[in-house]
Design goal:
The complex is a heterodimer of chains A (572) and B (374). Chain A has 572 residues and is of the alpha/beta class. Chain A has two domains: 455 residues, FAD/NAD(P)-binding domain (3-Layer(bba) Sandwich), CATH 3.50.50.60; 110 residues, Flavocytochrome C3, Chain A, domain 1, CATH 3.90.700. Chain A contains 16 helices and 21 strands. With 374 residues, chain B is α+β, with helices and mostly antiparallel strands. Chain B has three domains: 107 residues, Ubiquitin-like (UB roll) (Roll); 126 residues, Fumarate Reductase Iron-sulfur Protein, Chain B, domain 2 (Orthogonal Bundle), CATH 1.10.1060.10; 108 residues, no CATH class. Chain B has 17 helices and seven strands. Chain B is elongated and about 60 Å long. Classes of the chains: A alpha/beta (572), B alpha+beta (374). The complex binds flavin-adenine dinucleotide (FAD), iron/sulfur cluster (SF4) (2 copies) and FE2/S2 (inorganic) cluster (FES). One iron/sulfur cluster binds next to helix 6, helix 9 and helix 10 of chain B. Flavin-adenine dinucleotide binds next to helix 1, strand 2, helix 4, strand 7 and helix 5 of chain A.
């Protein structure tokens, strides 16, 4: 049930933007407290990018495992940039969360005893990844959506509504959002006591990427524009096994099941880089090893830009049962039967560790605004995220932000919200529609941005490259102002929304490049060839980027929270 | 690179004009998808082409369309395959899915049809009490088994061309019933009987399917909705003694329509032909679990064994053996892709596969691997 204090404006205790795992989990948690809840998503919730997660979700549920071991692996994986208080919370609460999911209906694979089965994943000291074949994200997302359908009387869904801005009151609090109903073109103000951003990552800033077309960093940019700081933006994860041609992901589950990486000489080269964990070292380590092999001329494939992933060493029956989706991806998108021959892969952009800065309750420094999931930076992933920790992050901090946002809301009155932002956003859309056909195409600018980022902000970076990336982004920002659209209609005008998304991607990319330039050391996913060492004395700190009113990003720093684990050398 | 001609069905609800065809030439590698073709046309020629899409890799379920009249995912259809099934003019036709109202261009109103039907089947787990402290202890196979229906991405391709739904728009339909199996097959669910009663007594429920195979053909994820429906019926009948209230009336109507549309041999031919005219690996488990339907059809004289089901050269004796093997089991054996994969070496499938080997036309390996299509 929604309140309706000021005429037609929808108003809720908690307004959630994004219906991936983080958003849906937040909605369920908030509704449970009795708060009124609405959830908005620019695509139908089950189309959210969480659906693509393949490998699984980490939790120390095995009685011989311990959440502290999970926490240590996560901290080491983060190259000691993760905040240890947040990591402790995530790992401690993980088993209960996974049990909650199981009770809600997730069909986790079982072992012979009928208990949940666990598989090995990168950077983990034991098997602790629960999974549903290699469609874990899909299974989780669809089960959460079942729960939304079940709770349809207490959670209002606005499906295919595109949020264009957050609303900040004169008192400096976030009090709602403006959104456009894609189907009709109608634009509306949503008032709310608390707003939770759960709008996912920004992979489309890069080309190629494993991320879906909808991952355009909308929430990161909206929070940034509203004055909330971003953190760890330089930390971009390149996944070790993506298809060269289109960036599709081959899940780490493949290496978890025992697959090998081979160079052109047929060597299992990980022996040189991570003699203990081999293929299952942290992702940054494996991606760098691959890139080094490629740069030194031991790549495979037509232009020697790839590495072989050999899944034939995994028993065929097991592959067909547990890696079915990548059997299909290999067949449908690369023409390779992975059960019979190796497949050519390469490191590819996959995940953004950074995002809107939050505390352990998901609250951002902007009062009333919460963030959870890939859009947020708690920071539990620090310099490098472990495989199967992201689904966990979305659920734990989705739930926590849902609970805290509701608690805050239940203790306050509905703020008065003006239609000022609505007016601005209406004008912005009208301005885009009115642009003459003289500028560049949106798709062209987007493509140039993607290739630029993939060239200069990738596995290896240096000052000169990052500088040129920044210059290109500044130019593209100018060009984006006149980018024209063909579709002038109201109904399902995806063209005009594409232009809005382009602006978001440019803001995100700029923050990424500025933070990467700032960090003059190599840590986690950020490897600076001009500063190849980790430098704890100067750089064991987070880089925050905020806009503070102007268009120029401003840098500040915040401390890394250390509880029990002091930084040490990182080997696998 | 190669050039492909795409003919996209366009409809602009604001223009007040009828739908029309819009042709674009795109330049892409032949193994690239129809979706990439549409996106190239959109990015380079006309930004107003409306199509839902996100993942590009057949997992988000956004891009259900009809390509050359057949429902499927645009991102899961290769351009060269699409060209092969195109008409003589070599133009690939892309249209919105059927059975659902069109909003704009290739975008249909899934809420009005698909999602309404999903909501109809009480689509959430009703967990058995008491809820355990840790996970429910259930067999490994049971979880793998429901994973097949869990693999549904709600794309609507099966709904698009469901024959029963054309005849009876109120039919709950293939996707929602596959979703039902996801609970009825789940040992943790406490409401198997209520669910089956509910959908058995509803005349638009589980007995409203005419087993036309269209949903099996359409489904990009191997969910095989019709098979899930048949399993629901078997469990309803065998375990809960629920009777078919529909008396097959609607079936008859749909069946007549099917025959009108496709000619008399079509339905029977679908068995071997829906997977490339032979016992394709993927058809094996599906074929086996659909045998009882064939039996029913035979008993009702909808098909005559010699003429319709079995082409004379397809070794009727062998097929009889498959029936014998399957029907002779004490325990009901539910096959699905996740259990059997395409491996003939799995327990349970081996003897059947052996029987199939003798039944099928020569030249296809028992595990079917030689016949797998790209
Ligand atoms: C191919 C792939 C495989 C992966 N595998 C794993 C894995 O095995 N294990 C793991 O832990 N992690 C994995 N990840 C990472 C993980 O899937 C994601 O980080 C996580 O799902 C993000 O969830 P989310 O809820 O934050 O966002 P998303 O699921 O991306 O959801 C974002 C939501 O926000 C909405 N939205 C965005 N912008 C707007 C707007 N402007 N207006 C309205 N709504 C908006 C979208 O519609 C969507 O509903 C994988 C990622 C990829 C790409
Ligand atoms: S088999 Fe049944 S459910 Fe499937 S398309 Fe035909 S009538 Fe519809
Ligand atoms: S059953 Fe198959 S075709 Fe039908 S909605 Fe699900 S995935 Fe799509
Ligand atoms: S784009 Fe996701 S299924 Fe086709």
């Amino acid at each position: 049930m929604k309140h309706d204090p000021i005429g037609a404006m929808p108003a809720y205790d908690v307004l959630i933007i994004g219906a991936g795992l983080a958003g849906q989990r937040a909605a369920i948690a908030a509704a449970k407290t009795g708060a009124t809840v609405a959830i908005l998503s620019k695509v139908h919730p089950v189309r959210s990018h969480s659906v693509a997660a393949a490998g699984g979700i980490n939790a120390a549920i095995n009685p011989t495992d311990d959440w502290r071991s999970h926490a240590y692996d996560t901290i080491k994986g983060s190259d000691f940039l993760g905040d240890q208080d947040a990591i402790e919370i995530m790992c401690r609460e993980a088993p209960a969360e996974v049990m909650w999911l199981e009770h809600a209906g997730v069909t986790f694979h079982r072992n012979e005893k009928g208990e949940m089965d666990l598989r090995a994943f990168g950077g983990a000291s034991m098997k602790r990844t629960a999974y549903v074949a290699d469609i874990t994200g899909q299974a989780l997302l669809h089960v959460l959506y079942e729960q939304l359908m079940k709770n349809h009387e207490v959670i209002d869904r606005f499906e295919e509504w595109f949020v264009t801005s957050l609303i900040v009151s004169e008192e400096g609090e976030c009090v709602g959002a403006v959104a456009r109903e894609i189907r009709s073109g109608k634009i509306e103000t949503f008032a709310a006591k608390s707003v939770i951003l759960a709008s996912g990552g920004a992979g489309q800033c890069f080309s190629p990427t494993t991320n879906a077309l909808i991952c355009t960093g909308d929430g990161i940019a909206q929070a940034y524009q509203a004055g909330a700081p971003l953190m760890d933006m330089e930390m971009i994860q390149y996944h070790p096994t993506t298809l060269a041609e289109n960036g599709f992901l081959i899940t780490e589950g493949a290496r978890g099941e025992g697959a090998h990486l081979l160079n052109s000489e047929g060597e299992r080269f990980m022996e040189k880089y991570a003699p203990n964990k081999m293929e299952l070292a942290s992702r940054d380590v494996v991606s760098r090893a691959e890139q080094t092999e490629i740069l030194e001329g031991r790549g495979v494939g037509p232009d020697k830009q790839g590495i072989y992933l050999d899944i034939t060493v995994v028993p065929r029956k097991r592959t067909l049962e547990a890696l079915r989706e990548i059997v299909n991806i290999g067949k449908d998108f690369a023409g390779v039967d992975i059960t019979r021959e190796p497949i050519v892969i390469q490191p590819g952009m996959h995940y953004i560790m950074g995002g809107v800065k939050t505390d352990i309750h998901g609250a951002t420094p902007l009062p009333g605004l919460y963030a959870a999931g890939e859009v947020a930076c708690v920071s539990v992933h620090g310099g490098n995220r472990l495989g199967a920790n992201s689904l966990l992050d979305t659920l734990i901090f989705g739930r926590r932000s849902g609970e805290h946002a509701a608690e805050r809301a239940l203790a306050m009155n509905m703020p008065t919200v003006s239609d000022e932002q609505l007016g601005k956003d209406r004008e912005m859309i009208a301005e885009i529609l009115a642009r003459p056909k003289t500028g560049r195409r949106v798709s062209e600018i987007k493509q140039e941005l993607g290739t630029t980022m993939n060239r200069y902000a990738a596995v290896y970076r240096d000052e000169a490259g990052l500088q040129s990336a920044h210059e290109i982004i500044r130019r593209l920002k100018e060009e984006a102002k006149t980018a024209y659209v063909d579709d002038k209609g109201a109904v399902f005008n995806q063209d005009v929304l594409g232009a809005v998304e382009l602006d978001y991607m440019l803001d995100c990319s700029e923050a990424i490049v500025v933070a990467s330039l700032e960090r003059k050391e190599s840590r986690g996913a950020q490897f600076r060839t001009d500063f190849p060492e980790r430098n704890d004395a100067e750089w064991l700190k987070h880089i925050d980027v905020s806009r503070n009113g102007g268009d120029e990003p401003k840098i500040s720093y915040s401390d890394v929270t250390i509880t029990d684990w002091q930084p040490e050398a990182r080997t696998y | 690179m190669a050039e492909f001609k795409l003919k996209i069905r366009r409809y602009d609800p604001e223009a007040g004009a009828a739908p029309y065809w819009d042709e674009h030439t795109v330049d892409l590698e032949p193994h690239r998808s129809v979706l990439e073709g549409i996106l190239q046309a959109r990015n380079e020629n006309d930004g107003s082409i409306g199509v839902r899409c996100s993942c590009r890799s057949a997992i988000c379920g956004s891009c259900g369309v009809r390509v050359n009249g057949k429902p499927g995912l645009a991102c899961h259809t290769h351009l060269d395959d699409a060209l092969a099934s195109a008409g003589e003019d070599g133009v690939i036709e892309v249209e919105p899915m059927g059975n659902m109202p069109i909003i704009k261009d290739l975008i249909v109103d899934m809420d009005a049809v698909h999602w309404k039907k999903i909501q109809r089947v009480t689509p959430w787990l009703i967990g058995k009490e008491p809820v355990p402290e840790r996970e429910y202890i259930v067999s490994r196979e049971s979880m793998i088994d429901v994973t097949q229906s869990m693999a549904c991405i709600q794309c609507g391709a099966c709904v698009s061309d469901c024959l029963s739904m054309e005849v009876d728009p109120l039919f709950v339909g293939p996707a929602a019933l596959a979703k039902t199996y996801r609970f009825v097959g789940d040992p943790r669910d406490a409401a198997h009987e209520q669910r089956l009663k509910d959908l058995g007594e509803d005349k638009h429920g589980i007995y409203d399917c005419t087993h036309c195979f269209k949903c099996i053909e359409a489904c990009p994820k191997g969910v095989a909705p019709m098979n899930q429906i048949m399993r629901l019926r078997r469990i309803a009948g065998n375990d809960f003694h629920i009777k078919d209230r529909n008396n097959g009336e609607r079936h008859e109507a749909a069946f007549v329509k099917n025959i009108e549309k496709n000619g008399i041999l079509h339905e029977a031919d679908l068995l071997p032909d829906s997977y490339g005219g032979k016992f394709h690996p993927r058809a094996v488990p599906e074929l086996i679990s659909s045998l009882p339907i064939v039996m029913t059809a035979l008993l009702r004289r909808k098909m005559t064994p010699g003429k319709a089901l079995l082409h004379p050269h397809k070794a009727p004796d062998g097929v009889k053996r498959i029936f014998e093997v399957v029907e002779g089991r004490d325990e009901r054996n539910e096959f699905n892709l996740y259990i059997s994969g395409t491996d003939a070496n799995n327990e349970g499938t081996a003897e059947v596969a052996e029987a199939i080997e003798t039944a099928e036309p020569a030249g296809v390996a028992p595990d079917g691997t030689e016949g797998s299509s790209a």
